[in-house]
Amino acid sequence: MAVSIRLTRRGKKKKPFYRIVAADSQCSRDGKFLEILGTYDPLTEPAAINIQTDKLQYWLDKGAIASDTVKSLIAKAAK
User: Most exposed: 30, 37, 66, 70, by fewest CB within 10 Å?
Assistant: First the structure.
């Protein structure tokens, strides 16, 4: 089972809200996931990014691969 760290979409139509999750790479975008690692709200100014770094580091140490979007969110959150 390959684990990926990616976004799942929540919220209403035209009002997106995302969760950053660790999920099996073969599951659908909004399907099952293993653990919630944080949230991302693009509608606020500036965009709100909340990441639980201890959980994120745990999954990265286990070999999970972050998507390109999640990598950029991690970099923005670190600033």
Answer: 30
